[in-house]
Design a protein that fits this description.
heterodimer; A: 6-stranded antiparallel sheet; 11 helices; 8 strands; B: two-stranded antiparallel ribbon
């Protein structure tokens, strides 16, 4: 319990430095104790027979929380910092105590929200006494809204206009990958949020290298190199990554995605070459945002560079 | 463009969420369906908060990234066979395939479902009080599929906070030209091709949504659960006045209305005589227009009295 008190104290200390997100809730903080007592009072007043069972369940929930635990909108404000929210213990405690997540607490709420109980509450004229519950539900809904808009932001990052378009083969492979349960890389998570990976299987004819074109040529000239790329692309879901209207340096250092994998290159350089013609060259590649670099091994080792671009949309 | 749920102050205790079909997302602040609904509500319109679920942008993400709609020959083959295999049937099948391809993508389904849940949460948040406010949903075409999935998700997953486990009930749900059964049949036919099809509510027997509150089954929809379609609307399960059982949504306990539609705006011999006579007098072209049996505004206009009765 001491460590919970410490975490709560830490949360309170941070309140003064946290930027408040906007809220239309009637209260930005409501202690669990007030929520529990208002539920208990309402059910006793209307005379439901199982109030003792409700009290036992509420005590069970209370024992898992810190003494002064409160549903607090300020914790949502801190949670809005993207990946920080995952590691924030206070945010996690808030989430886990939310309606719909704590099974024991939900049974209490189920009882409260049964239509017969709600009708009795209205008949008794004690609707206002449940204001702490209303305040908690409002904050809970703000948390749900935050999570929902975050999920949609991630879907947009992976599938929206700024994402890499897929060719027909990639569409088929990624469609099939939805059925792959393990490793859990593709499709969606159990909470329907997107997983960050997708399969890359593309033909690219826009890589460049430098090469002397003739035996008497003293200068190296740029040459196209055609390759097949096979790998995985990872979308960076952090809020600071892949921001379209950020500066060029920020976009370069924190792109919306990266990919890595294997290249198969044609025996000879040149555009529009079949990668497996002759003795194919193989090597790794890395794409950091729109910039790509690869290294072909074999009889003609060389470094190749490119940008993420489709010459013919949805094809290559 | 990032999805942003609509938010507004409620003038009273009533709100309606309009869920449009694919391609019906307007650029104007209010859609034609919104205006038609306000007209139906008449002098009560000002007491309603009317929201619109704008999800075409999300559809566009997936359509433009994957072109998945073009990779469904099996889907099209199934639909063509069902719709008769002739040119009209092929055209109808292509249209139907265009609207139902999102079921093939887990991510598309998840994103669209999430947008619905976020919008409904925002509506509840905007309203005066979850226990006393009245929310109705009026949906059309593919919007009916998203609605059906969302209202079942509301009852099945309490962490969404939009169902009876969070003290929320809906007043009415009105489906117009619903392809729910059409999609259900396609999902069943395609079988394993549909990823995680058991997570689709329509993979189970069609039903009104109910929530389990400690062993007590509570309905999510307190008022009307209505399915309206037209005798000429293939998306709603009719092909030239013939009901297609494999495509017509029949949820046990629903109120079913089938509109008597006509190919043109002329619905009787008398109307034709009057139209031609007027044309002779004014020396203008006779006003004979083709009717779109799937048009949402037309559905709303035909049911103005019903909507006003149900929603108020």
């Amino acid at each position: 319990m001491a460590h919970l008190r410490l975490r709560t104290a830490g949360m309170l200390l941070l309140l003064s430095t946290v930027a408040r997100a906007q809220s239309t809730c009637p209260a930005t903080s409501v202690p669990f104790a007030r929520v529990a007592s208002s539920i208990q009072h309402a059910l006793v007043t209307i005379g439901v027979p199982d109030t003792e069972q409700v009290r036992t369940r509420l005590d069970s929930v209370r024992s898992r929380l810190s003494d002064d635990f409160a549903y607090s909108y300020n914790t949502i404000g801190r949670g809005s910092q993207g990946t920080v929210a995952k590691r924030d213990q206070n945010w996690k405690m808030l989430r886990d105590a939310m309606p719909g997540r704590d099974g024991v607490f939900q049974r209490v709420l189920n009882r409260l929200f049964q239509s017969t109980v709600q009708a009795a509450i209205d008949s008794a004229g004690i609707r206002d006494s449940l204001a702490p519950v209303d305040a908690m539900m409002c904050i809970a809904r703000d948390v749900r809204l935050f999570e929902g808009t975050e999920k949609l932001r991630r879907f947009e990052k992976k599938f929206g206009p700024g994402s890499v378009k897929l060719n027909g083969l990639e569409v088929l492979l990624n469609y099939g990958a939805q059925f792959v349960a393990w490793p859990p890389l593709f499709g969606v998570n159990a909470d329907f949020s997107p997983r960050p990976w997708e399969i890359v299987a593309a033909y690219r004819t826009t890589y460049l290298t430098v090469e002397k074109t003739g035996s008497t040529d003293t200068k190296r000239r740029p040459q196209a190199v055609s390759v097949a790329e096979f790998g995985l692309r990872h979308y960076n879901f952090g809020k600071d990554w892949g921001v379209e209207d950020a500066g060029w340096l920020s976009r370069a250092l924190k792109p919306g995605s990266f990919s890595l994998g294997v290249l198969v290159g044609a025996e000879a350089n040149g555009a529009l070459k079949y990668p497996w013609s002759g003795t194919a060259r193989v090597g790794p590649y890395l794409a950091w945002g729109g910039f790509k670099v690869g290294y072909l091994t074999g009889h003609d080792k060389r470094l190749i560079v490119s940008r993420e671009v489709m010459v013919i949309p949805y094809l290559f | 463009m990032a999805f942003k749920p609509q938010s507004q102050a409620w003038p009273g205790h009533d709100a309606v969420l309009l869920v449009h079909g694919i391609g019906e997302d307007p650029t104007a602040p209010r859609s034609e369906a919104n205006e038609a609904l306000r007209s139906a509500l008449g002098d009560r319109a000002d007491s309603f908060a009317i929201y619109e679920l704008r999800y075409d942008g999300i559809n566009d993400w997936f359509a433009e990234k994957t072109q998945l709609a073009g990779l469904v020959p099996q889907l099209l083959g199934f639909l063509k066979g069902k719709f008769g295999g002739d040119h009209l049937g092929d055209t109808v099948a292509a249209f139907a395939g265009d609207v139902i391809w999102p079921v093939l993508s887990l991510s598309a389904r998840a994103a669209l479902r999430e947008a619905f849940i976020v919008q409904l949460n925002k509506m509840i948040q905007d309203g005066p009080h979850a226990a006393t406010q009245r929310i109705s949903i009026v949906c059309h075409s593919m919007g009916c599929f998203h609605t059906y999935e969302a209202i079942h998700a509301a009852c099945g997953d309490m962490s969404n906070l939009i169902g009876p486990q969070a003290g929320v009930r809906l007043q009415n749900v009105i489906f117009m030209a619903s392809p729910v059964q059409l999609i259900k049949s396609a999902v069943k036919e395609l079988g394993v091709v549909i990823p995680k099809r058991t997570t689709l509510a329509l993979s189970r027997s069609l039903s009104k949504p109910v929530a389990d509150l400690n062993g007590v089954e509570e309905p999510y929809v307190l008022g009307k659960f209505v399915s309206i379609t037209g005798a000429l609307d293939p998306v709603g399960g009719h092909l030239f006045r013939q009901k297609l059982d494999w495509a017509y949504m029949a949820v046990p306990g629903q109120d079913s209305l089938i509109d008597d539609q006509h190919e043109t705006n002329i619905t009787s011999r008398e109307e034709l005589i009057a139209t031609l006579s007027a044309s002779l007098q004014t020396r203008e072209r006779p006003n004979i227009t083709l009717q779109n049996p799937h048009d949402w505004v037309a559905y709303i206009d035909r049911h103005q009295t019903d909507l006003r009765t149900w929603l108020t």
